[in-house]
Amino acid sequence: MSAPVDRIPRSEGGAAFDRPVVVANVSRRRFLQGASALGGLVLAVGFSSAARAQEPKKYGADGMPNGWVDDPLAFVSIAEDGTVTIVCHRSEMGQGVRTGIPMIVADELEADWKRVRVAQAPGDEKKFGNQDTDGSRSTRHFFEPMRRCGAAARTMLEAAAAERWKVPATEVEAKNHEVVHRPTGRRAGYGSLAKAAASQPVPKRETLRLKDPSKFRYIGKGQLKLVDGRDIANGKAQYGIDTRLDGMLYAVVARPPVFGGKVASFDPAEALKVPGVERVVEIEASPPPAHFNPVGGVAVVARNTWAAMQGRRALKITWDDGPNASYDSTAFKATLEEAAHKPGKVVRNNGDFDAAATGAAKRLDAEYYVPHLAHATMEPPAATVRIANGKCEVWGCFQSPQSTRDLVAKRLGMSADDVTVHVTLLGGGFGRKSKCDYAIEAAVLSKAVDGKPVKVTWTREDDLHNSYYHTVSVEHLEAGVDAQGKPVAWLHRSVAPTIISTFNPAAKSEAPFELGMGVINVPFAIPNVRIENPEAVAHTRIGWFRSVSNIPHAFAVQSFVAELAAAAGRDQKDFLLEVIGPARQVSPEMLGDTWNHGESPERYPVDTGRLRRVVETVAKEAGWGRKLPKGRGLGIAAHYSFVSYVGAVVEVAVDNKGVLTIPRVDIAVDCGACVNPDRVRAQMEGACVMGIGIATVGEISFKAGRVEQDNFNAYEVTRMAGAPREIRVHIVPGDYSKPMGGVGEPGVPPIPPALCNAIFAATGKRIRRLPIRDQVKV
Amino acid sequence: MIPLDINGKRQNVDVPGETPLLWTLRDELGLTGTKFGCGMALCGACTVHVDGQAVRSCITPISAVANRKVTTIEAVGGEAVGRALQAAWVDKGVPQCGYCQAGQIMSAAALLKRTPKPSETQIDEAMSGNICRCGTYTRIRAAIKQAAAQQGGTR
User: Which ipTM was obtained for this model?
Assistant: First the structure.
């Protein structure tokens, strides 16, 4: 779920980069008049290509398209009744961002949370800054800008009060939704000051007084409930699939069963006989690259979803399967293994692996396999489009509303200025909803029915058959160890189709952002390290899936370290700490990692002290070393990703029939300081369950180019009975003056290896191929 | 015309009898709280009550619920058990994306009506038809127990 912005233009032509810097105060008058009046300063952060070439490399939010905005006029409005409306410009998909981002603003604003409302921003990055909700970036990129938003609005309210009372601004102070004049105790509520505050100048960034973290009232406290919690529990929350407009038509699409295929011929006659079916429309296949374009197919447009589905069943379509018709997962695994057995492109080389391995006391090797996965968001993709009077409106569950806007505009031949993208709640995202192919389908269909609103709903089968799949990979590891069993030489060959293939079909090598997910940037105290990346060809759409390449990389690396520990007869935790080595700060560049999750190598070095601490913390909290009954075992793993550090201890129980259960998982996270600790816990709990699902049951496989899994009966995900009985999350305390890390994704990668290491501890059975499924049963 | 009793409201709908209850609720009646997740009774997102029993509305033809009492997430708060569960869901911070939670609450409400003091195993059995892709299961269990305790039932 992590967009490598330096490699992939989100809108073709890189339009976002080709505009000069524009700073224009578009509208001030409507400021502070209510939720709908969000006019304000527009700060377009853009650079000409020529200027960009000379610019020093940008990191963090600065490096993202359209960067960040910290203008209170864009994010905060206050009504005369005192209601504060705070805009959340990132998409809510379960990570709690609609609570967390407004909480940051409200804290600095000294707003009373009970009087805060949250409004969702439409896709408009010039106004709000980057909106790509992926890469576990929302909080770490917007903590500081959102604090400044709140502090600026607070300063404007204070200035308005000081002006009204004709007292120096230094004598007034905003506190809990009112401004107080300290010497006299006079008070004025935010509502009464709203209009006057609107005419105050926006204070300069460098003059802002940010709160001392000891004065935070919401940040880091975790006492606030989710802003959408009640609506979710009452069934009132609106997701993309819930959009209803007057005169709306409902569509489902029959898509090519093989990626790269197209419609050869079709007969709509029977479909058109289904009561309620209005139109059958062919959607043209998009030429390569796949990008975020629809794969084409035949759409049935009807008066309700069920009629559309029935109509689709009645369609007669002959497909031309195209070049991927022989894609077969079993054969492809062999292809990847073959590549993994030969040298590949060297992407990191320290010391001399061959010499050290030859001279080592012992050599070990192992190979690990992780199959394709599908996100299977509980809400399948869904989008609604209406075109009227030269304007297009889009509603849906989008992780990337700006690219949705740009790409819908491009497909319709309209200006993006004439396209509005309304972002609903997302019923899960996990990277799938970063790609707006379903919105483009709805746009094409709306245009075909004269602009009438059309909602496209994907069924579960559509979702599993036409996803942007997590890659499939073979990870080959070799080590030379000394007489004590400690590795002195480390070779890792990672072979996997790259996400770049979705944007450039010729791409066969992992991109820096994939290698930088736990294969080259492994900070072990091993003198001779060689990392290789043999080529692999993609035969389907490869895309970001929560935690991305960290999943196979961490599975391989953390399993292999445990295998080395077992071979040395050592305690797995002690051995892992020894391999990590002493606490030190390692430059990602020294590890060959030019990406570093898009963050500055100086601000975000790889800190082995922090990696050690999560190992030590989780081991202590889990009672590592405790005596367990027969058939039980503990496994440990730790991984650095999304500039956070996570360690996990999984406890398994394997009964005499080989049935696996998970009584308990401990997980320690160091993501720096937290905004909403309860949501950090929730993300770790969820990551743990998803990681267990990936390890135990998750697999998408292809036969004759077609995905073999149709629905949740074949594509299994963890259910309650398979989930851990208990998950204990341990948050390593952070410091608000230090850079923050990601939270949404870093919890997943250590779980599969910790689980498999626990199975080894319990049974002596080593799992190298995911999913585990019945490999534990004897 | 099929006569329906949805959330205590008697009404007629004009759809083919084989139309699933799910799509009738969502598309014809505008009750979008009941979610589509799989269409094959595999995920539980569409769970509603028919005469108090948990039913997967995605495979239930509308003709099968004629004149029977259908309750959806929009009205389950009108019952003490539903109200207690909704409060526990908010209090425990159960939802992440929240999409599956209407179905989870409906399954849990049917469980507590039938079994006011469910054991861990009974909770697992009653809830294992409901998938949560965000993985909120430990909190769902905790919320069910809290609601059960509040209703006077604990083990």
Answer: 0.98
